[in-house]
Amino acid sequence: MTYRCLGCSETFEIADLHYVCPRCHQVLLIEDLRSDRLKDLPASTWHQIFDYRKMLTDPALKGIYRYHEFIGPMLPLDSIVYLGEGHTPMIQGNARLRETVGLNLYFKNDGQNPSASFKDRGMASAFSYLSYMIGTGQIRDILAICASTGDTSAAAALYAAYLQKDIKSAVLLPRGKVTPQQLAQPLGSGARVFEVPGVFDDCMKVVEKLSEDYQVALLNSKNAWRILGQESYAYEIAQDFEYDLTDVVVVVPIGNAGNITAVMRGFLKFLDAGIITCLPKIIGVQSHHANPVYRYYREPEPAKRRFEPVTVQPSVAQAAMIGNPVSMPRVIQLVEQYKRNASEANVFFVEVSEQDIMDWELRANRNGHIACTHGGECLAGLIQALASGYVRSDETAILDSTAHALKFAGFQDLYFENRFPPEFGVKPDAALQNAPIRVSPQGVKRLPEAGNPLEGREFEIFVDHVAQDIAGALGLKKR
User: Fold this and answer.
1) What tens digit of pLDDT does each residue of 249-288 get?
2) What pLDDT is stored for residue 182 in this prediction?
3) Terminal-to-terminal C-alpha distance of the chain
4) Is 255 within 8 Å of 261 (Cβ atoms)?
5) Local structure of residue 105 (DSSP, 8 states)
């Protein structure tokens, strides 16, 4: 295994902690110098290996390292950190949602990872590597640090806490730009939490400076081990579809661009090894409040494209509220590689409004899903991709719901109560609003209280009146 620079193409030993190229400061990817050996096995054997590992009880092979040969094959199994990450369920949209959208679709619920977001995939890889380095005496007393919009900090702090004898953690959050639930997670895991003025991009510059000047382990997606672990998302989809990805579309939100990088790279690796025979279509989605990647690919002529960071505006898709994604060089290279390996154009980028993100998140959840705002962003992006002709009605879409819906429940409350600040540009659709109904039964002399219950006939009267009020509100008929 080696680091390879995307700028100057130099390679560097993985025995050192590198986050950018020591020579030209471009981002890195990790490559397997002996990847050709993976082609020695026929596809049917690989399928049997991965399917067999589903039945194993060894924790090291229960998570993302079911695909050990593709994710850090030099790591011994006793170095692997497993907290329950990976193999998140794909839930098919119900008949009504599929009919509303106009094609077959699934949500892949990555909010069912241990810290409730997809970031655990990359952290399992990065911390397994650190565990290996500690176990072999190459590093000790390491500080894991990251900038975050919420989910990265929660995942980093959780995995660091698991290895706390040798690793401490610190996270930088943009002050007032993360939800209370996301702030609570790293605090609960014992991390040192620093609230920094500004937005994520400002926090990222600070941790980059710290990683340049001090001996720390940077845990943002600039860390190539993070990308390696997140490739597991692609491997799982391939296995869930029994390795036939014909007419499959994978829709992912773009934040720091690490996830879309990993998804493309994972499918490319499986294609190169012969495990799959075709690449699925990829749709990258951005909010119009944070859309630098969409703007770059909006120019149809590759020679005329120029990447320019943008100043972000408030977004309900907080994890994607990034104006200068560090993985953009990876995206540019991998999009070209992906297109070269496909028979037709199969990577597209779309832009959606904040209004559409919230409306489609709520519609999904009204149909039995647990989509977060980023899942809503993906569904809104799928609608846009259909309208743009990038996706056909006979294809099957997998939508990345990157975190658990409860992390972003505050935005749902703002929607229901029509309290969104004007800068979001979100107004509630009355058909999607909801609110609790307060029951105040009339004709009841006393109401039950904690420690002071009603009894006997008094309690019977209370139950009867409350039942009548609820039945009236629901329009129920007597038996």
Assistant:
1) 999 999 889 999 999 999 999 999 999 999 999 999 999 9
2) 86
3) 71
4) no
5) E
Q: Provide the pLDDT for residue 77.
A: 96
CB 26 within 8 A of CB 20: yes
pLDDT band at 342 (very low <50, low <70, confident <90, very high): confident
Alpha carbons 153 and 169: distance in angstroms, whole number? 9
Q: Regarding beta strands 248-253 and 347-352, do their DSSP bridges make them parallel or antiparallel, or are they unpaired? A: unpaired
Task: State the pLDDT at residue 238.
Answer: 98
* Structural domains in the chain plus CATH codes: 1-31 (no CATH), 44-114+226-424 (3.40.50.1100), 120-225 (3.40.50.1100), 438-479 (no CATH)
Residue 422: Cβ within 10 Å count: 8
Residues 8, 10, 14, CA angle at the centre, nearest 5°? 135
DSSP string computed for 371-401: --HHHHHHHHHHHHHHHTTSS-TTSEEEEEE
CB 321 within 8 A of CB 256: no
What's the pLDDT at 89? 97
Which of helix, strand or coil describes residue 70? helix
- pLDDT per position as a tens digit, 89-137: 999 999 999 999 999 999 999 999 999 999 999 999 999 999 999 999 9
Copy the structure tokens of residue 388.
């743009």
Count each helix (H run) and each strand (E run) in the chain, helices first.
Answer: 15, 13
101 vs 77: CA distance, rounded Å: 43
> Which positions ≥6 away from 86 have C-beta within 8 Å?
62, 63, 64, 66, 113, 120, 121, 124, 232, 236
Euclidean distance between CA atoms 436 and 41, whole angstroms: 58
Beta strands in 43-141 (DSSP E): 90-92, 104-109
> Tell me, what's the pLDDT at 367?
97
| Residue 385 structure tokens | 């991709």
Q: Residue 437 has what pLDDT? A: 93
Residues 6+ apart with CB under 8 A from 144: 127, 130, 156, 159, 160, 167, 168, 169, 170, 216, 217, 219
Give the residue, 392 or 177, on which the prediction is more confident.
Answer: 392
Q: Which residues pair with 195 in a beta bridge?
A: 173
Which DSSP string do the residues of 123-175 spell out, in sequence order?
Answer: HHHHHHHHHHHHHTTS--SEEEEEE-SSHHHHHHHHHHHHTTTTEEEEEEEET
Q: How far apart are CA 456 and CA 359, in angstroms?
A: 48
Task: Tell me which amino acid residue 361 is.
Answer: E
Element (H, E) at 432: none
- The candidate with the shortest Cα–Cα distance to 315, out of 414, 207, 194, 205, is 414
Contact assessment for residue 118 and residue 402, using Cβ atoms and an 8 Å cutoff:
yes
Question: CA–CA separation, 414 vs 361, rounded Å?
Answer: 14
